Amino acid sequence: MLALSGVDVAQFDDLIQGMCFISQVPLVVLYDSGGTHSFISRVCVEKLALPVSSLKFDLIVDTPASGSVLTSNVCLQCPILISDRLFLVDLVVLPLSQIDVILGMD
Questions:
Q1: Residue 85 near residue 26, CB atoms below 8 Å
Q2: Which run of H or E residues covers position 45?
Q3: Using one digit for the tens of pLDDT, what is the confidence trace for 11-22?
Q4: Which of 27, 58, 84, 99 is most buried by its number of CB atoms within 10 A?
Q5: Residue 97 pLDDT > 90
Q6: CA-CA distance, 5 to 31, in Å (whole number)?
Q7: What is the pLDDT of residue 64?
Q8: Taking residues 68-75, what's their average pLDDT?
Q9: How far apart are CA 11 and CA 25, in angstroms?
Q10: Rg of the chain in Å (alpha carbons)
Q11: Which of helix, strand or coil describes residue 42?
Q12: In Å, how far are 54, 56, 65, 78 from 4, measured between CA atoms?
């Protein structure tokens, strides 16, 4: 798995940057058509006071900014509003920079 920063987005054809809302707060979202998982920045989780659960396993995610990151934290069934449509998404918590949410399009 690979998680990118906003600076890296322009290099990839299967990535689209946009906006979404969680708890009525506008966030920068990266839509990853090749992604199998979805992510949220640790800063957003803290700022929005989202409930965090633990996975039953550790997940290793490769990030350009932080290298390999080990995490087991996830926000389950997080309500995300995109273009007036509500989606419930499991978001793995990562130390992302310049991107608030990465949505895998599995």
A1: no
A2: helix 42-48
A3: 555 678 999 999
A4: 99
A5: no
A6: 12
A7: 65
A8: 92
A9: 28
A10: 13
A11: helix
A12: 23, 25, 8, 21
Task: Give which of 83, 85, 86, 92 is closest to 19, Cα–Cα.
Answer: 83
Confidence of residue 6 (pLDDT cuts 50, 70, 90): very low
CA 67 to chain centre: 16
Closest CA to 65 of 1, 25, 5, 20: 5
- Give me the pLDDT at residue 11, please: 53
Q: Which residue has the tokens 């290099």?
A: 11
Asked if residues 19 and 28 have their Cβ atoms less than 8 Å apart, the reply is yes
Q: How many CB atoms neighbour CB 30 within 10 A?
A: 27
3-state secondary structure of 50: coil
| Amino acid identity at 29 | V
CB 51 within 8 A of CB 45: no
What beta strand segments (E) does the chain contain? Answer: 15-22, 25-32, 39-41, 53-63, 67-82, 85-94, 101-104
CA separation for the pair 83, 71 (Å, rounded): 30
The one-letter amino acid at 82: I
